[in-house]
UniProtKB/TrEMBL annotation:
Source organism: Nocardioides gansuensis
Comp. bias (Low complexity): 1-22
Name of protein: Multidomain membrane protein
Coiled coil start-end: 114-204
Keywords associated with the record: Coiled coil, Membrane, Transmembrane, Transmembrane helix
Length: 211
C-alpha cells in the first residue's frame, strides 16, 4: 500500500474520531468571536454616544470604557488564536500517531503475508522435489521393464519350444511396462501442476513485495 493511501486512511480515521470535538471547538470559537465583536460594537456605540452628548466627562468615561472593551475583545481574539494553534498542533500530533499505528499494522500484515508465501513456496518446492525423485524412479523402472521386455523378446526368438511360457512372460512384461508408462505420465502431469502453482505464488509474492 502506498504512503498516499495510508495517509488518506489516517486522515479519514482522524476526521471521524475528532468530529465531535472539532464541532464543540467550532461552537466555542464562534461564541468567543461573537463576544469580541459585540464588545467592539458596544465600544463604538459608547464612543458615538459620548460624542453626540458633547459632555467632556462623558466622552472621557466612554473613551475609557471603549479602551477597556477593545482590550477585552483583543484579549479574547488573542486567546482564540492561541487555542486554534494548540488545537491544530494536537490534531497534527494525533494524525501522526494514527499514521504510525497504521504503518506498523501494514508492516506486520506484509511480514505475515511474506512469511506465509515463503512457507507455501517451500512446501511446494519440497513436493516438487519429491515428485521429481518419484519420476526419476519411475523412469528407471520403465527403462528396466523395457530392457526386460527386449530380453524376453530375444529369448522368445531363440526358444520357440517355450513359446507359450515366453508369450506369457512377454505379456506380463508389456503390462508392467504399460503401467510404468501410465505412472510416469501421471507424475509428470502432477509435477507440471505444482510447478504452475509455484510460479503463480512466486509472482504474487513479488507483486506484494514491490507494492
Amino acid at each position: 500500500m502506498s504512503q498516499q493511501s495510508q495517509q488518506s486512511q489516517v486522515n479519514e480515521q482522524s476526521t471521524t474520531t475528532a468530529s465531535p470535538r472539532s464541532a464543540a471547538r467550532r461552537r466555542q470559537r464562534s461564541t468567543r468571536v461573537a463576544v469580541a465583536v459585540a464588545l467592539l460594537v458596544l465600544a463604538a456605540v459608547l464612543v458615538a454616544g459620548g460624542i453626540v452628548a458633547g459632555s467632556g466627562l462623558l466622552q472621557a468615561v466612554t473613551g475609557v470604557l471603549a479602551v477597556v472593551l477593545g482590550a477585552a475583545a483583543t484579549k479574547i481574539t488573542h486567546s482564540e488564536l492561541l487555542q486554534s494553534r494548540r488545537d491544530a498542533a494536537r490534531d497534527r500530533a494525533q494524525q501522526a500517531a494514527d499514521y504510525a499505528a497504521l504503518t506498523a499494522k501494514r508492516s506486520a500484515e506484509n511480514a505475515a503475508f511474506a512469511a506465509d508465501m515463503k512457507r507455501r513456496i517451500a512446501d511446494r518446492q519440497e513436493a516438487i522435489s519429491q515428485l521429481e525423485q518419484a519420476l526419476s524412479a519411475a523412469q528407471r523402472q520403465v527403462a528396466e521393464q523395457t530392457r526386460k521386455l527386449n530380453a524376453e523378446a530375444r529369448r522368445a526368438d531363440l526358444a520357440e519350444r517355450r513359446h507359450g511360457e515366453v508369450e506369457r512372460q512377454l505379456d506380463e512384461s508389456e503390462t508392467r511396462a504399460a503401467e510404468a508408462i501410465v505412472l510416469v505420465a501421471e507424475l509428470e502431469a502432477e509435477l507440471d501442476t505444482l510447478r504452475a502453482e509455484l510460479a503463480t505464488w512466486q509472482q504474487a509474492a513479488a507483486k506484494r513485495a514491490s507494492a
